[in-house]
């Protein structure tokens, strides 16, 4: 929980910003809170609200949200070796609380301490979930109810890029990591003109494939 504290510097304003934006888009308090409690994924929440504002068809909104959250499938695959023996109920709450920050902290902790028992791994993840998810929900409520009092010249939208940079940079430790990151970024920029989220849906697999290819070549050379 202590290790989560730096992330609150960006999670809280990001959640406040979502509460403000969603309210301005016409959602009532229950709908705004439903987003943060049920979806619990900031990037896809912003995407969905923007598309709702643009009167996009429901299937486009759902598809875009899934595309933005495709990275969660990669996170799950990465955590599987560490949490494989967890019960179905335990995996369910881990899946619910799996966000960028809880994943980044947990996977690095598991790799640094491979001898941890399953209960210790789950306990660590639970600590990150409590410290990250509850403030997200609370700050969403604050943004939806008190957001109109925030001056327009206070820019809260810095939170999203800073959060991702803080999580990703320490994890780029091998040539495969760097290659995957570079290809995904370039592909996302090239495909930025596609409908919201679809560019990421293509860029993410390209990045994963590149990283896997580099990793396989590195292992062959090592042999």
UniProtKB/TrEMBL annotation:
Keyword Membrane applies: yes
Membrane topology field: Multi-pass membrane protein
Keywords carried by this UniProt record: Cell membrane, Membrane, Transmembrane, Transmembrane helix, Transport
TM region(s), chain numbering: 6-25, 122-142, 154-172, 179-203
Keyword Transmembrane appears in the UniProt entry: yes
Localization per Swiss-Prot or TrEMBL: Cell membrane
Domain of life from the UniProt record: Bacteria
Family listed: Belongs to the AzlC family.
PANTHER family from the UniProt entry: INNER MEMBRANE PROTEIN YGAZ (PTHR34979)
Protein name, as recorded: AzlC family ABC transporter permease
């Amino acid at each position: 929980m202590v290790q989560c504290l730096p992330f609150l510097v960006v999670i809280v304003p990001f959640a406040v910003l979502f509460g403000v934006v969603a309210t301005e888009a016409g959602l009532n308090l229950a709908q705004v809170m439903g987003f943060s409690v049920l979806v619990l994924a900031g990037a896809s929440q912003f995407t969905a609200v923007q598309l709702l504002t643009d009167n996009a068809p429901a299937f486009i909104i759902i598809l875009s949200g899934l595309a933005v959250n495709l990275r969660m499938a990669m996170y799950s695959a990465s955590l599987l070796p560490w949490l494989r023996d967890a019960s179905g109920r335990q995996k369910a709450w881990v899946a619910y609380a799996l966000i960028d920050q809880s994943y980044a902290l947990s996977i690095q902790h598991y790799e640094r301490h491979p001898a941890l028992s399953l209960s210790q791994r789950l306990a660590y993840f639970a600590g990150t979930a409590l410290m990250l998810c509850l403030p997200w929900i609370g700050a969403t409520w604050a943004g939806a109810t008190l957001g109109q009092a925030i001056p327009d010249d206070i820019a809260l939208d810095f939170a999203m890029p800073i959060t991702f940079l803080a999580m990703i940079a320490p994890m780029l430790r091998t040539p495969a990591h760097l290659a995957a990151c570079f290809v995904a970024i370039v592909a996302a920029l090239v495909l930025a003109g596609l409908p919201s989220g679809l560019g990421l849906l293509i860029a993410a697999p390209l990045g994963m494939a590149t990283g896997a290819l580099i990793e396989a070549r590195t292992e062959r050379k090592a042999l």
